[in-house]
Amino acid sequence: MSDTQALAAEIAAIQAEMQVKPEIDPAAEVQHRVDFIKTQLLNSGLDCLVLGISGGVDSSTCGRLCQIAVDQLNASIDEKRYRFIAVRLPYSVQADEDDAQRALAFIQPDVTLTINVQAGADGIHQSVMSACADAGLESVAESHADFCKGNTKARMRMAAQFQVAGLYRGLVPGTDHSAENIMGFYTKFGDGACDLAPLFGLSKRQVRALADHLGACAETVGKVPTADLEDNQPQLADEQALGVTYDQIDNFLEGREVEADAQQVILATYRRTAHKREPIPVPSA
Ligand SMILES: Nc1ncnc2c1ncn2[C@@H]1O[C@H](COP(=O)(O)OP(=O)(O)OC[C@H]2O[C@@H]([n+]3cccc(C(=O)O)c3)[C@H](O)[C@@H]2O)[C@@H](O)[C@H]1O
Ligand SMILES: Nc1ncnc2c1ncn2[C@@H]1O[C@H](COP(=O)(O)OP(=O)(O)OP(=O)(O)O)[C@@H](O)[C@H]1O
Ligand SMILES: [Mg+2]
């Protein structure tokens, strides 16, 4: 096989793994994913869904799908057994809190909780930093420590959601879709940790199309994606961190033309983050 053929085969395999369709019917995708959520909840024997709502388009869309799913389940048994619990998880005060409130107004969750993750994230960060210093480990650049602390914030959010799920017999959906999945653009065992991933198989623009179909307002549908994890770079746009645009990632996923340099970044990032998509390695028997 020539290098060109090997590259084409690798791209085709990644596209198949990511399961993104070149075109979608948003109404059909909504019902398909609502049915998926209902099946997962029924099969679990549990009673609720617990999801962090940031104000971004991913959690707005996933949250609305969850609320529709529990509404449909309750209607089918004519009883209010199932609930969707939306969780606001600010680190102190969130700069784009207005967007989060807009998202909640769109989702209309059965229950909304607000859990400030600052004390937990700061506590573990400070304990880690002083333990490393006390042990004489070399100091790391302030920017790198802040980046790592950002991942701790994501893991605090994960811990909070799973505690609520434990308390009230719930599942934790995740908001990872294929444009994030291909780039490994999530915190391992942070927002990447979930019981089900209803948005998988969608590109970012397809997530926006579902949000629009569901009736989200233009601000939510078009909101600039941000992980907003770093103290030193608040509201950093994902596209700046990724080095490619979501349009370029979506074009790759949907099998459209992609500029050569963007394709290189996508492939290199996919390979580097393979460990996040693999099962945990174990020794052979
Ligand atoms: N080759 C390898 N084989 C097995 N494991 C490997 C490994 N390389 C790293 N690891 C492990 O993985 C860890 C690194 O992964 P991780 O902790 O995730 O950290 P990392 O991938 O470095 O950072 C997460 C990235 O995702 C972004 N993010 C996070 C959360 C939400 C969003 C969003 O879109 O909103 C984006 C965040 O801004 C950042 O750019 C290492 O510390 C190590 O434990
Ligand atoms: N401040 C927050 N409050 C509640 N949940 C949060 C918060 N920040 C992140 N999350 C959770 O972590 C998930 C991953 O964040 P991510 O930024 O990828 O999604 P988003 O904010 O919904 O959309 P976008 O990627 O467009 O910003 C969110 O979907 C949400 O479930
Ligand atoms: Mg976000």
UniProtKB/TrEMBL annotation:
One Gene Ontology term of the biological-process aspect is: NAD+ biosynthetic process
Domain NAD/GMP synthase: from-to ranges: 30-278
Reading the lineage from the top rank, the first entry is Bacteria
Leader peptide range in chain numbering: none
Gene Ontology molecular-function annotations: ATP binding; glutaminase activity; metal ion binding; NAD+ synthase (glutamine-hydrolyzing) activity; NAD+ synthase activity
Among its keywords, does the record have Metal-binding?
A: yes
Annotated deamido-NAD(+) binding sites? R155, K188, D195, H275, K276
Q: How does it assemble?
A: Homodimer.
- The name under which this protein is listed is NH(3)-dependent NAD(+) synthetase
Source species: Paraferrimonas sedimenticola
Q: What is the lineage of its organism?
A: Bacteria, Pseudomonadati, Pseudomonadota, Gammaproteobacteria, Alteromonadales
